[in-house]
Amino acid sequence: MKLNASGRWSLLALLVGLAVGVASIAFEWTTQAVRRYTLGEFAGYPSEGSIGEHQFFDSAGIPFSPWMVVAVITLGGLVSGLLVHWFAPEASGAGTDAAVDAFHNRKGMVNAHVPWVKTIASAVTLGTGGSGGREGPIAQIGAGIGATIADRFRLSSTDRRIMLAAGVGAGVGAMFRAPLAGAIFAAEILYSDADMEADVIVPSAIASIVAYSVYTQSISAEVRFQPIFGNDLAHTLNSPMELLPYTLLAIILMFMAAFYVRFFHATQKLFEAAPLWPHLRPALGALMAGLVGIGLFIYSGNNREVLGILGTGYGTLQHALSGDSGLTIGVLATVALAKMLTTSLSIGSGGSGGVFGPLMVIGGCAGAAFGQAAHSMFPEWVPYPEAYAVVGMAGFFSGVARAPISTIILIRELTGDFGLLVPTMLVCALTFVFSSKWILYTHQVASRLESPAHRGDFLVDVLEGLAVKDVYLKGRRLLMIHEGETLDEIVHRLAETNQHYFPVVDSNDAMVGLFSADDVRAYLYDETLWRLANARDVMISEFHRVSPEDDLNTAMQQFTTLNVDELPVVDPENPTKLLGFLGRKETIAAYNRRILEHRRETEQDV
Question: Where is the chain membrane-spanning (predicted)?
Answer without folding.
Answer: 67-88, 162-187, 243-261, 282-300, 320-341, 353-375, 387-411, 418-441
